[in-house]
Amino acid sequence: MKLRAVEARVLSVAPWLLALSVVGHLLMVAFQAKMTMIDLLVYRNGSPHLFSGDLYEWRLDQYADVFPLPFTYPPFAAAIFTPMSWIPWEASRWVWQLICLGCLYFIVRTSLKLLKLNDPRRAMLWTALVLWIEPVRTTLNYGQINLVLCAILIGTLASARNWVGGAGVGFTAGIKLTPAISGLYFLIQRRWMAAVWSFVAFVVVYGIGWAISPSQSNKFWFELLGDASRVGPVGSAINQSLRGALSRTVGYDVKTGPIYLLGVLVAAVLTWFAVSKTKDALALIVSVQMLGLLVSPISWSHHWVWMVPALLWLIYEGGHLLCKITAGLWVLLTGGYLISFLLLAQPNIWDFPRPWIFMLLGWGYPAAGMLTLVAIGLAARRQRDELLPGEQEAADGEPSRVAG
Predict the structure, then answer these.
(1) Nearest alpha-carbon partner for 287 in 363, 198, 199, 379
(2) pLDDT by residue (tens digit) across 56-73?
(3) For 84-113, what is each residue's pLDDT tens digit?
(4) How sure is the predictor about 395, in pLDDT bands with cuts at 50, 70 and 90?
(5) Taking a C-beta distance cutoff of 8 angstroms, is the pair 122, 14 a contact?
(6) 217 with 206: CB under 8 angstroms?
(7) What is the DSSP letter of 398?
(8) Scanning 93, 327, 380, 398, which has its CA 20 to 30 A from the CA of 141?
(9) What's the Cα-to-Cα distance from 9 to each of 5, 54, 146, 315, 316, rounded to whole Å?
(10) Between 35 and 124, where is the model more confident?
(11) In the prediction, which pLDDT does 88 show?
(12) Percent of the chain with pLDDT over 90
């Protein structure tokens, strides 16, 4: 039975499936001791140190016997998280979880709208399912910010208004620098004003951080930026960037040397292959985010929540066989909790040497990310080849599918 036929039968009970998933998750929040939400603790407890001038010297000692966690985001991020420290920890845990659940639903619903699939029950069904895949689970367990950033970006990038899209990119880049790669989406579309708005918004949020604490702003942007070792262990299996995978392969941190640059070049070529023949907005957004995850020095497994819109595109829009294979691979990797298994198997988070099978499996997310780019490129070329000459010319002139 085909996926669409199975889906049609399940859609009628989608609201109940979503309710069960959400209730199951909230029970885990209430009773699972291992849901430490350690990253939320960093955001909450570290942020007030922006105002005492020692934000980047502060460390979270709780739950961190191996690596006391520092605050690694720009000063603007500390400013917006400071109100979280004004409420009790138990309350902040629940507030953040509810925000993240809402963001997950919004990500799924917006992705499906871009695919012209507007049935709310389908959004409920997929939210109920992806709530249990590894990148989403680890984001929720750690109290991470990934779902919030993803929701802001996909919601604003999907807008046809240049100032909305640009503001979303600039705002999120001021919280965590990696979303800045999203500006490439506007350059691909030749939406120059949106790119300008991205820069303006980023300057504004940088200025807010600098106005609050010039010393902390200067320290972050001119001293700490680019120091991956401060963020965490590059070679640990939880780092699913190209740098992490390449480092585990050769047995040492490749840093920004020739091996890493070769990997970046390959990722850039695959991204060009993916975006050069498509006008599909979701395909372009996914392609740009895959590039960002691949080339970033650190891409923890929970950063890969962008595979949720990628999975939806591969299932519903990608007509090429490779799209179905790639979708199946993502389900296997994230539904099988591969990275959690590798973390348990490694002796510690710092050593690079691994048995060859673990080294190979450690390429899971980067390999799937690159395969996603290839699948998008092949699907776009197949769709283009199926058009008549006049339709091809019209497609070349069409804007990407975005919301009004």
Answers:
(1) 379
(2) 999 988 765 667 889 999
(3) 999 999 999 999 999 999 999 999 999 999
(4) low
(5) yes
(6) yes
(7) S
(8) 327
(9) 7, 56, 32, 17, 17
(10) 124
(11) 96
(12) 78
Give the CA distances from residue 316 to residues 7, 59, 100, 312, 371, in Å, rounded to whole numbers and listed in that order. Answer: 12, 45, 25, 6, 17
Give the integer Cα–Cα distance in Å for 37 and 242. 26
Give the chain's end-to-end CA distance (angstroms, integer). 37
Burial of 195 from C-beta contacts in 10 A (0-12 / 13-18 / 19+): buried
DSSP string, 331-376: HHHHHTTHHHHHHHHSS-SS-----HHHHHHTTHHHHHHHHHHHHH
Other Cβ atoms within 10 Å of 104 Cβ, number: 25
Q: Which residue has the tokens 């985001």?
A: 73
Name the token pair of 211.
């106005």
**CB 77 within 8 Å of CB 175:** yes
What is the rounded average pLDDT of the residues 174-198?
Answer: 95
- Sequence-separated contacts (24+) of 108-113 with Cβ below 8 Å: 108/308, 108/309, 108/312, 110/151, 110/154, 110/155, 110/158, 110/309, 111/154, 111/282, 111/308, 111/309, 111/312, 111/313, 112/312, 112/316, 113/158, 113/403
More confident residue, 273 or 384: 273
Q: Bridge partners of 239?
A: 300
pLDDT score at 147: 98
What is the per-residue pLDDT for 392?
Answer: 57
Residue labelled with tokens 């997310």: 365
**Tokens at 155, concatenated:** 């919601």
Tell the burial category of 158 from Cβ atoms under 10 Å away from its Cβ (0-12, 13-18, 19+): buried
